[in-house]
């Protein structure tokens, strides 16, 4: 066996292992997204800008793309096909660039994104009385988090003519006069940060595996070219 062929075999199995880890990581992200979706099912009628709902959808999309990309990488490594490897490299490179761009946008414009999300939620509150599904979701949110309104309980005054929904107070209260003072947006956001901190560590690990998979796919592509030249 030639030196280039031995190198190709080594890179091939290393790439397969890293892509298998990458695929399993995608399954993990998708699973967390499904778990978060189920735990937030009672709020499903709220706009997707609600913190926990947007996080659940983001994890589902990221997990799905990661699983497909990892599968392509494993298949390309085993089959030693330049076409699959090139496709995997391009998709993974685009994925990494998208993730970096998304993180930068969130970091730089987080205040504007928060304001936009809060504005969408306040706009949705206007149909609280006419939309039973939305009404139920808002009531569930406020009872669960013991909060009232998006940014303040006064958000309800324009919607309900200066009154508060009963869900802004303790369970069993027919008419709510002085509701909970904490805003629901911040409460839900803090709940998200408190409950899934390990996702951040997990995400960093996936990022490292992505970079390594990129390097190994490029190495393997070059090794296949060298092996084909040796055969010629």
From TrEMBL:
Cystine crosslinks: 148-168
Pfam families reported in the protein's UniProt record: Tetraspanin
Keywords: Disulfide bond, Membrane, Transmembrane, Transmembrane helix
Main location: membrane
Keyword set includes Cytoplasm: no
Record's bilayer topology term: Multi-pass membrane protein
Family: Belongs to the tetraspanin (TM4SF) family.
Name this polypeptide is given: Tetraspanin
Taxonomic source organism: Zoarces viviparus
